[in-house]
Design a protein that fits this description.
The chain is mainly alpha-helical and about 300 residues long. It has helices at about 5-20, 35-40, 40-45, 55, 65-70, 75-80, 95-110, 115, 120-125, 150-155, 155-160, 225-230, 255-260; strands at about 165-170, 240-245. It contains 13 helices and 2 strands.
């Protein structure tokens, strides 16, 4: 008999909520998280370690923002129906937009409602519970369903391959994470790459590329700027995730990267687009001229020479 005590308590709770046909509730009401523990004891064991537990511990939140019912909605009809999923907000059957709307009831300010709704993830119908697991998180930060890089690799398999290249950022080694450069909830408009938001890349100080958070020597300001760096950004020459080329360059040989812009015949004048041309004295058949940064060492910007010489 003692082993069935939880079921007796559940029936008693349901009976109190129902109160018979004469007092049937017109709409579902809040019953409190303690009632949820009766059927879901496993989920409540470690819930006090969950950031969402503060909605219970504070004792100041209204019922619609407290504990289990803060996310799943009022539970009286769910209890009376003996666990019918259709009587409660079950995230496992909700559409991604419904999940997002539910989470933004509390997280609108921290995530930026405008950014997350227009982010690449939201537009691709990636819901919050595609990356986060509220009850069974495997990460110490962000309630992620897995370690951060494994969550991202679940969809971005091509990026996983790039991080296995000889020259790459050390994400797999745990030195950094995807969110050091990207904002998965949507990034603000950037002032590089022609004002676009490339791949939800986050911004650093003064709306700069996140690369400058680590590579501070490339920040400037410089008296003579390399337009490709300022306008198009680091990705105009580098592959940010990883590549088989040294220095993570887009091409295996240095001068071929430079010749993507500095091409054609002529003097040290500029072409129709204002790009400085390679002078005729630079014979690319001669190996001496194939390593541009031997002379143009300040290629990211210079305070001394407009040709970025030493």
């Amino acid at each position: 008999m003692a082993g069935n005590s939880w079921w007796i308590r559940l029936l008693a709770t349901a009976a109190q909520i129902s109160l018979g046909a004469a007092t049937t509730l017109a709409a579902s009401q809040y019953v409190g998280s303690a009632v949820c523990k009766t059927c879901h004891p496993g989920l409540s064991v470690d819930f006090y370690r969950n950031p969402h537990y503060k909605t219970i511990s504070s004792g100041k939140e209204p019922p619609e923002k407290t504990g289990c019912e803060g996310c799943h909605g009022p539970g009286s009809e769910h209890v009376a129906a003996k666990g019918d999923k259709s009587k409660i907000s079950a995230f496992s059957v909700m559409q991604p937009k419904q999940v997002l709307d539910t989470c933004l009831r509390c997280h609108a300010e921290s995530l930026g409602r405008a950014n997350i709704r227009r982010s690449s993830h939201s537009l691709a119908s990636v819901g919050c519970n595609s990356c986060h697991s509220i009850h069974k998180s495997k990460s110490q930060k962000g309630l992620l369903a897995k370690e951060q890089r494994e969550v991202c690799y679940g969809c971005h398999g091509n990026v996983r391959a790039q991080f296995s290249q000889p020259f790459k950022h050390r994400v797999n080694e745990g030195f950094m994470n995807c969110t050091d450069c990207h904002n998965p909830h949507g990034a603000n408009a950037a002032n590089w790459s022609m004002g676009a938001r490339p791949r939800m890349v986050d911004t650093a100080l003064n709306n700069e590329e996140p690369c400058l958070k680590c590579h501070t020597d490339k920040r400037g300001p410089f008296a003579f700027e390399h337009p490709a760096v300022r306008v198009e950004g680091c990705a105009s020459c580098h592959v940010p995730h990883g590549t088989a080329n040294a220095r993570m360059l887009k091409r295996p040989v240095m001068f071929t990267v430079c010749l993507e812009c500095h091409n054609g015949a002529g003097s040290f004048g500029r072409d129709a687009d204002g790009v400085q041309l390679t002078p005729p004295t630079h014979n690319m058949a001669d190996p001496r001229f194939r390593n541009c940064t031997t002379c143009h060492i300040r290629i990211h910007g210079s305070n001394a020479d407009q040709r970025f010489l030493r």
